[in-house]
Amino acid sequence: MQTGEVLRRQVFNLLDAAKGGRLKKLKEVNKHEIVEGVTEDYMERRVQTLLSYVKQHSPYYKEHPEWTKLEDFPVMTKGDFIEHYDEVLVDCVREQGNLYRLSTSGSTGTPFTVLCDGDKMSRVNMNFISCMELNGFRMGMKRGEFRAWIKGKNTISKWKSFKNNLIMVDISNMGDESLDKICRDIEKKKIQVLVTYSSALTALTQYIRKTGRDISRWSVEMVFSMGEALPQETYDLTKELFGFFPVRSYGNNENGFIAIQLDEDPEYTVDLYNFYPEILKLDSDEPAEPGELGRIVVTDYYNKTFPMVRYDTGDTGKMRVYYDKNGRVHAKYTEIYGRRGSLMYNTKGEPLSIHVFMNTLLKFEGTVYQAKCIQWGEKDYELLVNADRSRLDETELLAAYRHYLGEDAELRITYVDQIPIQASGKFMVCENKWNGRKQA
Predict the structure, then answer these.
(1) Which of 82, 160, 262, 271 has the most CB atoms in a 10 Å sphere around its CB?
(2) Domain final position from 216, 251, 266
């Protein structure tokens, strides 16, 4: 336990106690409700309170008094919210001071900023801490955040970095030189928690294994994976290297963390305290059947500035809902497939998890540096490859992808020098550009 960690935790607790201990209470309730579930009454009450509020204060929803229950309200994509931005904002937003901005970098080509008040911002922060603490995090621990940090865009000040005990770990380039520097920084700066996108974690752990790097002097106690789905191979390798399992999470910048892995549960526990989750069919706004792949839609209970009712996150997954012996409600995402633009189909029209493409890449470690599979048609695929061509067996690579895409896949290779990491820090291993009926 580092001195800086203890001091920051004490300062946080003292400052919060001086204000009535609200943040601590919020955090503890959040943790309790994630683990123990919520009551049906709570869900119904929160939904009705939110719907009544938006019909009174949001010009967009005011126009439709006939919308009385959640199913009546339209499902809104990021594009829909952007189109109706000023109408969705509550009436008194211009009179509110100290508004906060929840911004997504636009990794799918659409930057988006959601405004919120101090209460929602506190909930976002305590939600993050709650998800971390449920997996062993201690307030004040030094964490390294892996992102494509861009000066003047998303970097943070030295004061904020010091206050939050946060180290900016730049992953704009994930070549061996950059990874060597990242490893040296982790050791030298005594980083305790790695908060990273799964693609960056995959690159880091593969590099450690490939180089046989000694990490015994590292101070890392926790690895927190965000963004795209974490391949099982990376999960297992992280556990092998560090001696503990990485934590899988699901969320976004607009709302916060929506679901979290608890212990080594392969499923994601949904935060029913802050969100009402739905899985809707891929081609309609009807509820998906239990266990059916569908669109992940969430209603955010607590953003009173920019209400997000039935927000289509752009991701796809499967969910199960169940009741425990006390009658409390629990929800689990049993599978998260990621962005619909990354939802690929094999030649039979069956959906493929992003795991498929990540796992395939791992088989060619050291030869294929990057690869991205693009679907152009029902059976038409292109494979962008950055590799050591002198060592690459094309036939073997094509066969590995056809194993999942289908033996009748029309698959061609295009060699490139680099496949850029997106501004968000994510690297997309697949993309659906098909205009056919299966593309979202």
Answers:
(1) 271
(2) 266
**For the chain, counts of helices (H) and of strands (E):** 13, 19
Beta strands in 151-280 (DSSP E): 166-170, 193-197, 222-226, 247-252, 256-260, 268-270, 275-280
Least Cα distance to 127 among 265, 294, 303 occurs for: 303
**CA–CA dist 437, 378 (Å, integer):** 9
- Say which residue the tokens 């999942």 belong to: 404
CATH of the domain at 397: 3.30.300.30
149 & 251 share domain:
yes
Q: Exposed, middle or buried by CB within 10 Å (0-12, 13-18, 19+), for 262? A: middle
- DSSP for 350-379 reads -EE-HHHHHHHHHTTTTTEEEEEEEE-SSS
DSSP H/E element including 387: strand 380-387
- Residue 171 sits in a domain whose CATH number is 3.40.50.980
CA distance 340 to 342: 5
Indicate the pTM of the whole model.
Answer: 0.79
Q: Are 307 and 88 in contact (CB under 8 A)?
A: yes
C-alpha 315: how far from chain center: 10
Q: Which domain holds residue 262?
A: 3-36+117-266
Tell which wins on pLDDT, 343 or 240. 240
Number of domains forming the structure of the chain: 2
Domain-embedded: residue 363: yes
Q: Which helix (H) or strand (E) holds 311?
A: strand 311-323
pLDDT at 172: 67
> CB atoms < 10 A from the CB of 55, how many?
18
Is 16 part of any domain? yes
Asked if 125 and 254 sit in the same domain, the reply is yes
Which of residues 266, 299, 321 is at a domain's end? 266
Integer CA distances (angstroms), 216 to 188, 196, 243, 250, 287, in order: 13, 20, 10, 30, 49
DSSP 208-236: HHHHT---TT----EEEEESSPPPHHHHH
Residue 425, pLDDT above cutoff 70: no
Average pLDDT of the chain is: 88
pLDDT tens figures, 113-153: 899 999 999 999 999 999 999 999 998 999 999 887 767 66
Please report, as a single letter, which amino acid is at residue 322: Y
